[in-house]
Each structure stands twice: as structure tokens, then as C-alpha cells.
Amino acid sequence: MRTKRAAFLLAVVTAAVAPSGLSGQPPRSAPSPAVRSDASRGQMIFFDQGGCLSCHRVRDKGSRLGPDLTDVGLQRTPQLLEKALLDPSPQVQPQNRTYRVVGVDGATYTGKLLNQDAFSLQLLDSNEKLLGFQKSNVREFGFIPTPPMPSYRSKLSPAEVADVVAYLATLKGVSQ
After folding, report:
1. Which of 20, 90, 111, 147 could lock 125 by a disulfide, CB 3.0 to 4.6 Å apart?
2. Chain centroid, CA 61 distance in Å
3. Do 59 and 174 contact (CB within 8 A), yes or no?
4. Same CATH topology for 39-92+159-170 and 98-143?
């Protein structure tokens, strides 16, 4: 009987003190109610209202300007996918940023930088046309600081974001 009482008191004391950080861990909050997600609704948003195919590609559909998302479900967790939708700026890789070239004649071209060396550079423009430039015919060139991916924080509801994330998480390669 004495050991049961001691175990009970230890459990009461531990429960009373643990939230204040006795274990060195911050107190755990109750999980927030999860938003129900539907990958098929997310697919419809991705292909229609989201306008995602204007930059991204999935399997054989969409643009080559942004990253191919055919296997993004293997590369990123749902949490990272959500973060990329809501705050894409830090998530955009340098190779996916918009590049600008200004010719000596003042003509400006933007697109995705494909390649450059000491004498030339190649750009895939917004119409997916390959453009080549000799650096001797270029006044300025470089990445545009503003990333091309918009935030969907104010464009989609939390439920729609959850649906798109659920759809993206299903993208695990070409063979599916």
C-alpha cells in the first residue's frame, strides 16, 4: 500500500511540475484541430484556380519555367510543402529565380537561366523559347531579387491550402 501511495504522489507531483519545464522541455500545447484535406480537390485547385501550371510541370503537363513537381512528394514533407505555398520566398532555389538580361540596344529579356560561361549565356524565356546571348552584346544581366513564386496565403483558404498540400504529397514520380 505504501508503494502505491508513493507512486501516486510521484505521478501527481510530476504532472503538476512538468508543464513548467521540469524536464527542460517547453510545455506541450494541445494539438490544434487539423484541417481535413482532400488530394482530389487539391489537384483541381492546382490545375485550375491556382494557376500552378503556368510555371510548374507535373508529368507531361505544364510549364518548364519553374520546378518540375512530378516527384515533390518524395522530396518534401507536407509541412515544407505548406511553407512553400504560404511563404515561398526563402524556399525558391537560385536556379528557379527569374533572370534578366538587358541588351546593349536596351531590349530586356526575362526567364530562367539555363547556362552561362565566360562569353555567353542561355535563357528560357516566359514563352519557353531558348534565347542565347553573347556577353559582349549585353549591357547587364543577373537574377531579379523578387522570387517568381507568389504566396498563396491570401489567395487560398486554409482548407484549400491543405487540399493542395495533400495533392502535392501524392506526387511521387513519373510512374504513378
Report:
1. 111
2. 19
3. yes
4. no
List alpha helices for 31-173, DSSP H.
39-47, 72-75, 78-86, 158-170
Report d(CA 156, CA 162) in Å as an integer: 10
**pTM here?**
0.69
Q: Are strands 61-62 and 98-103 parallel, antiparallel or unpaired?
A: unpaired
Q: Which CATH class is domain 98-143?
A: mainly beta
Q: What stretch of H or E contains 7? A: helix 2-17
Pairing mode, strands 98-103 and 57-58: unpaired
Within 13 Å and on the Cβ side, how many CA atoms surround 13?
A: 6
Distance CA(76)–CA(37), nearest Å, equals 17
Domain residue extents for the chain: 39-92+159-170, 98-143
The pLDDT tens digits for 34-89 are 668 999 999 999 999 999 999 899 999 999 888 999 999 999 999 999 999 999 88
Helix, strand or coil for residue 99? strand
> Within 13 Å, how many C-alpha atoms sit on residue 165's CB side?
23
Domain boundaries 39-92+159-170, corresponding CATH code:
1.10.760.10
C-alpha cell at 89: 520566398
Q: Are 131 and 109 in contact (CB under 8 A)?
A: yes
